[in-house]
Design goal:
- Strands 1, 2, 3, 4, 5, 6 and 17 form a 7-stranded mixed beta sheet that branches. Strands 8-15-9-10-11 form a 5-stranded parallel beta sheet.
- The protein has 469 residues and is of the alpha/beta class.
- It has 3 domains: 2-150 and 278-345, 3-Layer(bba) Sandwich (FAD/NAD(P)-binding domain), CATH 3.50.50; 163-274, FAD/NAD(P)-binding domain, CATH 3.50.50.60; 349-462, FAD/NAD-linked reductase, C-terminal dimerisation domain (Enolase-like, domain 1, 2-Layer Sandwich).
- Helix 1 packs parallel to helix 9 (324-338), helix 3 (49-68) packs antiparallel against helix 4 and helix 3 runs parallel beside helix 6 (186-197).
- It has helices spanning 15-26, 42-47, 49-68, 83-108, 166-169, 186-197, 217-229, 285-288, 324-338, 367-373, 388-392, 421-424, 426-434, 438-442, 453-462; strands at residues 2-11, 31-35, 110-114, 116-121, 124-128, 135-144, 148-150, 163-164, 178-182, 201-205, 233-235, 238-245, 250-256, 263-267, 269-272, 276-278, 311-313, 352-354, 359-364, 377-383, 399-405, 411-418.
- Bound molecules: flavin-adenine dinucleotide and 1,4-dihydronicotinamide adenine dinucleotide.
């Protein structure tokens, strides 16, 4: 059995693990990063953020050519879909980016190790099943960054063809006539948008009586209304109790979430997207004595250290928002801590973005959370119908909403539904990181005509003095 020795062995090359590996190498540590996949980048690059955004972009262009360009005076006849080419473009985007991380590893002298890793205990990781055969990596520290996997649902057996998770939904070889989505969260609404734009009828079955739980309620309501206008059908307050496959499709048994008469719902393809769970299969955590909580998330302290000295964990597998940028920030900070520096992640200022059209972006507290905490706050809101750039673009669905502490005017949350919401929210994220007041944003000169002026106007509206409304 080959043996090698490192300062740090990172398990998982997703956005958490690969960023941690590079940051640790920048700080002078010798680092190996192990992943079962040969292509680096984890869920995010291979079967998550990047392929889904590639398809969102392509499907948006298809829908634009079909339905929008004519209003700009551009006549396009005979728009047809070449799904094979669309999927091939997505694959090329993915391989370009995963290859880019391999180059970054080389540049930073991070050793890539392919295979399934197992934690033997503090200071030793075994790797099996890769081209290097079975090997033991000795190390001073171990970082677990093994991510997450799609959560299962009893009675709904995934085959990644007729009943798919997001992974299968990224590679469907034909456009389903009827796509039934279970779960009205990030994946269901993004992948539902892709296939609806390409021609599917899309029905979303959601257990709760609202979509996107956790999102500001007013924004979620508006979001659902816009999606309905686009053709989405919703069955809220409904649970799926079983799925039966036949040649022609899938029959779901559904019933009211609170109990009641069951009924059936037919679809050619069913997308199961009811959340993700930590992925720690075969990692040997039990034998190594690493503590996990009752849902399987690895437990860590404020320095990302587990109950065992020298074993750290970050990213989706420790819980919190399952977002690539959250994993990345944790990875960088954890590497700094392992290298003897200090650092922390500000969980109050992590944006969440749904990349539908319009996009939905949020940061900080929702109105519901502020009410529950008894915090006195003021709301500033500005609709995109009153923003000149949105009007010039004929893209006026949605609004910017800024929540500020009533006494101090400090911005405590922001929620945007609208064009490019995911981009324009970042001035508020930076503002929150710096502890700014709504008035600071309101007095900052914003370029005209930009969508960002809606942010300035919402900040002005906190003090009841929006100009264009
Ligand atoms: P992961 O990216 O899951 O990486 C973990 C890696 O560990 C994997 O490559 C896995 O193979 C490896 N691994 C696991 N166990 C072992 C082992 N024993 N040995 C060796 N290797 C192992 N987030 C966003 O912020 N924006 C988005 O737009 C977005 N879109 C998404 C779209 C989809 C369809 C999905 C599924 C997710 C999306 N996410 C998005 C979430 C994002 O992908 C995750 O939050 C992020 O990838 C988590 O990073 P991570 O490093 O913790 O883990
Ligand atoms: P999710 O947590 O976003 O949404 C799951 C939805 O399913 C919720 O609305 C929930 O109430 C519902 N649900 C749960 N059990 C159900 C049941 N039995 N029947 C019907 N509905 C049920 O999870 P999703 O969409 O699977 O995505 C997983 C995670 O991946 C997200 O939480 C997010 O962290 C990440 N992601 C992020 C993206 C982004 O940043 N744009 C895009 C895609 C995924």
């Amino acid at each position: 059995m080959a043996e090698k020795s490192y300062d740090l062995v990172v398990i998982g090359a997703g956005p958490g693990g690969y960023v941690a590996a590079i940051r640790a190498a920048q700080l002078g540590l010798t680092v190996a990063c192990v992943d079962k996949r040969e292509a680096l980048g984890g869920t995010c690059l291979n079967v998550g953020c990047i392929p889904s955004k590639a398809l969102l972009q392509s499907s948006e262009k298809f829908a634009e050519a079909q339905h929008e360009l004519a209003s700009h005076g551009i006549a396009v006849d005979g728009v047809t879909l070449d799904l094979k080419a669309m999927l091939a473009r997505k694959d090329k985007v993915v391989s370009g980016l995963t290859g880019g991380i391999a180059m970054l590893f080389k540049k930073n002298k991070v050793d890539q190790v392919v295979g399934a890793a197992r934690v033997v205990g503090a200071g030793a990781v075994t790797v099996e099943g890769g081209p290097g055969g079975t090997q033991t990596l000795d190390c001073k520290a171990i970082l677990i960054a093994t991510g997450s996997e799609s959560a299962p649902l009893a009675g709904v057996e995934v085959d990644e063809k007729q009943i798919v998770t997001s992974t299968g939904a990224l590679t469907l070889q034909s456009v389903p006539e009827h796509l039934v989505v279970i779960g009205a969260g990030y994946i269901g609404l993004e992948m539902g948008s892709v296939w609806r734009r390409l021609g599917s009828e899309v029905t979303v079955v959601e257990f709760l009586d609202r979509i996107t739980p956790g999102m500001d309620g007013e924004v979620a309501k508006n979001f659902q209304r816009v999606l309905k206008k686009q053709g989405f059908k919703f069955k809220l307050g409904t649970k799926v109790t079983g799925a039966k496959k036949s040649k022609g499709g899938v029959t779901l048994t559904i019933e009211p979430a609170q109990g009641g008469e069951p009924s059936t719902l037919e679809g050619d393809v069913v997308l199961l997207s009811i959340g993700r769970r930590p992925y720690t299969d075969g990692l040997g955590l039990g034998d190594a004595g690493v503590a996990v909580d009752n849902r399987g998330f690895v437990q860590v302290d404020e320095n990302f250290q587990t109950n065992i000295e020298g074993i750290f964990a970050i990213g989706d597998c420790i819980g919190g928002p399952m977002l690539a940028h959250k994993a990345e920030d944790e990875g960088a900070v954890c590497a700094e801590i392992i290298a003897g520096e200090t650092g922390h992640v500000n969980y109050e200022a992590i944006p969440g973005i749904v990349y539908t059209w319009p996009e939905v972006a949020s940061v900080g507290k929702t109105e519901e959370q502020l009410k529950e905490a008894g915090t006195a706050y003021r709301v500033g809101k500005f609709p995109f119908t009153a923003n000149s750039r949105a009007r010039a673009n004929t893209d006026t669905d949605g609004f910017v909403k800024i929540l500020a502490d009533e006494k101090t005017d400090r911005v405590v949350g922001a929620h945007i539904i609208g064009p490019d919401a995911g981009t324009i929210i970042h001035e508020i994220v930076l503002g929150m990181e710096l502890g700014v007041a709504a008035e600071d944003i309101a007095r900052t000169c914003h370029g005209h005509p930009t969508l960002s002026e809606a942010v300035k106007e919402a900040a002005l509206a906190v003090a009841g003095r929006a100009v264009h409304m």
